[in-house]
Amino acid sequence: MANGSRQAAWEFFGAELRRHREDAGLRQAELRARVFVSGAYIGQFEQAIRKPQLDISQRIDQILQTDGIFERLCRKLINDKRYADYFARVLEFERTATKICEFAPTVVPGLLQTAPYAGAITVAANPFVTDEYVEEKVTARLERARILKDTTRPEYWVTLHENALRIPVGGPAAMAEQLDHIAGLMRDRTVWVTVLPYAAGAHASMAGSVKLMEFEDAPPIAYTETAFSGTLVDDPAVVKRAQRAYDLLRVAALSPEASLALIESAAEDFRRCASTT
């Protein structure tokens, strides 16, 4: 489903939610209290600003007695084949998180990627695919990043290992653009990025990436990923260990100011390299 048609489908979801709510004689606050969501979520669902998780859609069906309409719509919309099956629920959680903390040991996180960088990553992993396939994957990656522009955007904290700044994904020009993009988001105070330098040596997440997500009305969860699989973790003890590892990474990282300087310096290095080739 294309980006525009997907958004239109969520708008239809919202319009139907409003219609059924009003038919039931409920105000937004009354439905919110019965569904157990926080703040102005019902209004944001109706305006397609926020996308409800599957369990919320199921509770809406129960309260409004809509025979599973909203569950079926939600399942269809979150079943996005542009993403690996193991990543589908992560997307669902990203859209409703109030805070996301992420450690990226080698690759710039998807929420920060530019189109050339995302395209190069896709082709490297799938060298025989069509241009249409690559375009679809890149569009999906950029669509994810829209949550950083929403009025309800989460706090987004990222710790990048210096590897992610130095590996020339897509070539020098693409890397310069990618690092400029990150620097711009930092300067706009859209994201909080720090860099774990090579000099830090061994660190608390040598096994790979970690993403932590917090929510207004649910316990935090963690997500870890390898090249071919990903794991969502909601066990409180394990999530606490992941949070501690991330805290240790942040302590070992450069300050935001020094991180920005290093990112801009790396971008300039790539720019000079691109101009000589």
Radius of gyration: 20 Å
Give, in spatial order, the strands making up the sheet with the most strands.
3-2-1-4-5-6
Instruction: Provide the CATH architecture of the largest domain.
Output: 2-Layer Sandwich
Order of helices and strands: HHHHHHEHHEHHEEEEHH
Domain count: the total is 2
Q: Which regions contain 5 or more consecutive residues with pLDDT less than 50?
A: none
What's the total number of strands? 6
Name the shape in a single word. globular
Strand content: 5-15%
Question: Alpha-carbon distance between the termini?
Answer: 39 Å
Mean pLDDT: 90
Examine the coordinates and then state which fold CATH places here, giving the name of the CATH topology of the largest domain.
Answer: Endonuclease, Chain A
Q: What is the class of the largest domain in the CATH system? A: Alpha Beta
Counted by DSSP, the helix tally is 12
Major sheet details = 6 strands, mixed
Structural class, by secondary structure, is alpha/beta
User: Portion of residues in helices?
Assistant: 40-55%
